[in-house]
Amino acid sequence: MLACWPTETRRSCSIERRVKERPAGAPAWVARGVVIARNSRLYATEPMCFGRRFTNSKTFAMSTPSVPPSPMPAGDDRTPATDDQKAIAVLSLEDRLQIFWEKNRTAIYAVVALVFLAILAKGGWEYLAEQRERGIQQAYAAATTPAQVKAFVAEHSDHPLAGVAQLRTADEAYADRRFAEAIAPYEAAAKVLETGALATRARLGLAMAKLQGGQAAEGEAALKALAEDANEIEAYRAEAAYHLASLAASKGNATDVQAFSDLLTKIDPESPWTQRVLQLRTSFPAASSAAPASGAADEGDAAPAIKLPSTK
Q1: CB 180 within 8 A of CB 206
Q2: pTM here?
Q3: Around Cβ 247, how many Cβ atoms within 10 Å?
Q4: Positive/negative CA dihedral, 142, 144, 148, 153
């Protein structure tokens, strides 16, 4: 791929006279009149002298033979890399990040906006829930009369404070010896509260209200279930066991008195109810006696009363 120009003189072929300035990177013997074509790796191997007949200023380039692409190896089903993929392979990390940002910035903005909106929505929902809860608590505190308590329960029937309000209503009815009227609010309180000390207390009150409100069999069964349930609060289990022992004493059933006394001692030997049941046993004959003492059932003429602590 060499091109030739006429020399300075027609007669002289001296290299010293023709070499004025050689191209950068060319060998020292390359004359000024010799031009190396672009992308060519061919150099003249010896000085060349051009005569008068070689005076054409046009350049001639050697044709480059086309190299056929190498065939894919047998069994290689990979897709050949495209020009874009080859170009990306040589890019730096910074350039790749820039290209990724240019292609996906709209989607990135959308995702960031959605996340921001979700955070705002969550915060707003929590704020509204907190305000609603505070309003319910204030309404419960303001309900001081039976009519106000009833209205509060009707408006917030599924809220735990509605269960507490039902428990207050049942306690008031039980304290006034309106046992039959106390059954429904005790049942509602136990259903709403479900678990916890107040829920166990509602179940104990329900059992006692049934026991003294004309449903003695159901009340006694409820007391037994409560006393024997290891998942319930021990203090209320102990109280239920004592009432069962007292009820057995009122019936003159020494065997049940002994059984429920032992159960109470097992539940909580340090409970005040344990001390009371021991006093009951000393005043009641042993189970092996042939006949009970005549005065053993003096306090059993009626079902034992229950004193529930205030919920206020």
Answers
A1: no
A2: 0.55
A3: 21
A4: positive
pLDDT in tens, 21-78: 555 665 555 544 444 444 444 444 444 544 444 455 555 455 555 555 555 555 556 6
**What is the spatial distance between Cα 241 and Cα 52, in angstroms, rounded to a whole number?**
135
Task: Enumerate the β-bridge partners of residue 34.
Answer: 4
CA 25 – CA 45 distance, rounded (Å): 15
Furthest-apart CA atoms within the chain: distance in Å: 162
Q: Give per-residue pLDDT as tens, 158-194.
A: 899 999 999 999 999 999 999 999 999 999 999 999 8
